[in-house]
Amino acid sequence: MQQKLQLTDWLPTTKKEVELRGWDNLDIILISGDAYVDHPAFGAAVIGRIVESMGLKIAIIPQPNWKDDLRDFKKLGKPNLFFGVTGGCMDPMINHYTANKRLRSDDAYTPGGQTGFRPDYATIVYSNILKEIYPDVPVVIGGIEASLRRVTHYDYWSDQLKPTILHDSKADMLVYGMGEQALREIITLLKKGVPFESLKTIKQTAFLLSKDESLPKNKNWEDKKLNSHEVCLKDKKMYASNFKHVEQESNKLFADRLIQEVGNKTLVINPPFLTMTEDEIDASFDLPYTRLPHPKYEKRGVIPAFEMIKFSINMHRGCFGGCSFCTISAHQGKFIASRSQESILKEVDKVTQMPDFKGYISDLGGPSANMYKMKGKIQSICDKCISPSCINPVICHNLDTTHKPLTDIYKAADAHPKVKKAFIGSGIRYDLLVPEFNKTADKKDLEEYTEQVIKNHVSGRLKVAPEHTSDAVLKIMRKPSFSNFHLFKKTFDRINKKYNLNQKLIPYFISSHPACQLEDMANLAAETKDLGFQLEQVQDFTPTPMTVATVIYYSGFHPYTLKPVYTPKSKEEKANQHRFFFWYKKENQGWIKSTLLKVGKPELLKKLLPFSQINNATKDMEVNQKPKFEPHHKKYQHRKNN
Question: What is the DSSP letter of 267?
Fold first, then answer.
C-alpha cells in the first residue's frame, strides 16, 4: 500500500505551503492554465519536479483568477530568477471550442470538469499580467500553446494570421517542444551567475531581438531566414512556403537556426536538442511524483483528464508518422525517445500500490502505442534526414520496426502479481502491422505483437485511425492507402476467430480535411458500411497551429509544392461532409438520397440506403448528369484567380 502523503509531498501552491517548507522566497514561480496534478503526464508537474531536483525553490500557481484584482499573481511575490508560464496540456482554444467554434460545456483539466477557470489565449493573458505587475522579472513561456505558436501562424478561432506568441505575450523567452533539456540548461547557467538576458544560444528556445541588435554567435549553426510576418500577411503563398522550412528544421537532428522579422523585431528560433537519451527520459519520469491531484481539489470534484490517465503508463515520446493534421511531431519531435523497461516497470509497480487500483492498467502506450524503441538502423542516415515522416509514402528502409521490445514489456506487466490486465488505450499504427506495407519487417514479429495485443490487451475495442478511405485525401494526410486497413481487418478478424473472442475494431475518421470532396465522404460512407461499421469515432477537421493541413486550410497552397489544394471551409460544406458519417440515421437518409442523385452517384445510393428508400429514384436521373459539386472546383479557381 502507498504510505500516507503529507501536504509537503506536493509542490507548494500557496504562501502557507511555501512556509511549511521553511522557505521565505522562491527562485521560480510557475503559472499554469491547468489544475495542479502531480503526475508525469502533466507538464507543469514535470517542470516543477525538474526545478526541485536541481536544488531550486519552486511553487505553482494553477489556474489563477485573471478577472479580479489579480491577487493570485501577487500572492507569492517576486521570484529570484523568473516566472514560467504555460497555458496547460491543451491549447486553450481547443480546450474551449469545438471544430464549429461552439463553446465546450466542460474542461477536462479543471476539478469537476468546470469551465471558466482559464482565459482564451491563456499564455498571452498570464504573461501580460506578469509583465504589468513585475516588469523587471523575466517571463519564460512554454507548453503546447507557446510551442505551436512560436512563429507566424494561422489562428482558426480569430480567423487571423498571428505573429509569434512572443510578440503578443511580451515574454522574454519561449521554450518549445518538451522542455526538460532546455530548462536544465537555463537553470545551470543561471546558477553559474550568467545574466538572464545573455541566454541567447540555448537550444530549443526562441526570443525577440531589436532589429539593430546583432544575432548571437554560434559557429555550429547555419541561419535560415523565413519570409517576414508582414510578407506573410500580404501573400498567402509566401506564408505557406515558410512552413516547409519550419517543419523540416523542427524534425532534423542537426537543424538550422530560424530567423524571421516581425515588425521592428527579429524572431530567433534556436535549433532543437538531440532526442532525449534513455537515461534522460528515465530521469524525468523517475522524479518523486505523488501521481495525484493536489489535496486542495478534494471538495471540488474529480479532474476528468487525471481520471483518464490515472492508471496509465507513458512509455515513450515522439512520433515519426508525420500526419499532416497532427501536432505531435511539431511538439515532441519525429524521433522516438523511449524509457527503459526498468523505469516503465517501476512505474507499473507504483500504480499497483495506489489505494483504489483494482488490477487494471488503462494504457501502456505513447503518442502512437507501437513506436516504442523504434529508430534508424544506421544512425548516420537519420542524421541527414529531412523527411517529415519515416513511414510515408512508404516505410523507410532504414527504420527498425521490430515490436519485440513492446511485446516483452506487455508480457512483463502481465506477470506482475497485482496486474489483472494491462490495456493498450493509445492509438496503434495498424499500418506498421501490415506485412504488405511494412515489407522489411519480420512477419513473425508483427504476428506475435498483433496477436498479443488482440488476445490480452484490448478491453473489447481496439481503436485505430485510418482517417479516410480516399487515396487522394490520404496522400495529403500523409497516411497509407485504405487498402492496408482492409488487410489489417482480415488479420484482426482471423485472430478474433482463432481465440473465440468478441473484440471490436473501432476506426477513426476525419471529414472536411484539405483535398476532401463531398464525393469522397459518400465513398467513405459506402466503403465503411461494406465493412460492417456504423461509425462513431469521427471528427470534423480542426485547423491547429503548426500543421501542414492548417497551412493549406488558410493559404490554399500545399507548403511543399506550393500548388493549390481545395479545402471545404463553409459551415454548409463542412456540415454536409460530416453528415455522411451518419448515413444510418433516418433523419439523414432523405438528404443523402437527394445529394447522391444530384452528384450522379446512384451506385452509392444503392449501397447506403435500403431498397425502399431508393425505389424509382434513379429513374429521375438524367443520362450523363454532371455532378453538382464540380462548381466547388470552379469557385475555388475563381477565388484563386481573383
Answer: E
pLDDT band at 618 (very low <50, low <70, confident <90, very high): very low
CATH architecture entry for 7-269: 3-Layer(aba) Sandwich (3.40)
- How far apart are alpha carbons 411 and 395 in whole angstroms? 27
Taking the C-alpha atoms of residue 73 and residue 76, their distance in angstroms, rounded to an integer, is 7
Which residues lie across from 561 on neighbouring strands? none
Q: 283 burial class (0-12, 13-18, 19+ CB within 10 angstroms)? A: middle
Contacts by residues 62-69 (CB-CB < 8 Å, ≥ 24 positions apart):
62/13, 62/32, 62/34, 62/35, 62/36, 62/294, 63/32, 63/33, 63/34, 63/35, 63/110, 63/117, 63/118, 64/31, 64/126, 66/119, 66/125, 66/126, 66/129
Cell, residue 152: 507566424
Phi and psi angles of residue 595, each rounded to the nearest 5 degrees, phi first: -65, -45
Contacts of 378 (CB under 8 A, 6+ apart): 398
For every residue of 21-44, which 3-state class applies, written as one string? CCCCCCCEEEEECCCCEECCCCHH
pLDDT of residue 598: 86
Residues of the chain with CATH 3.30.750.210: 311-459
SS3 408: helix
Confidence of residue 605 (pLDDT cuts 50, 70, 90): confident
Q: Which amino acid is at 283?
A: A
Provide the 8-state DSSP code for 622. P
Instruction: Assign 475 to helix, strand or coil.
Output: helix
Work out the angle between the directed axes of helices 43-53 and 180-191 (0-180°, nearest 10). 30
Task: Quote the pLDDT of residue 626.
Answer: 43
Cell of 396: 523507410
Which residues belong to CATH 3.40.50.2300 in the chain? 7-269
What contacts 465, CB < 8 A, 6 or more positions away? 427, 507, 508
* CATH number of the structural domain 311-459: 3.30.750.210
91, 281 Cβ separation under 8 angstroms = no
| pLDDT tens digits for range 358-402 | 999 999 999 999 999 999 999 999 999 999 999 999 999 999 999
CB < 8 Å & 24+ apart, contacts of 621-628: 621/597, 625/600, 626/600, 627/519, 627/598, 627/599, 627/600, 627/601, 628/598, 628/599
Confirm if 118 and 33 have CB atoms less than 8 A apart. yes
Please determine, for residue 492, whether its predicted confidence score (pLDDT) is greater than 70.
yes
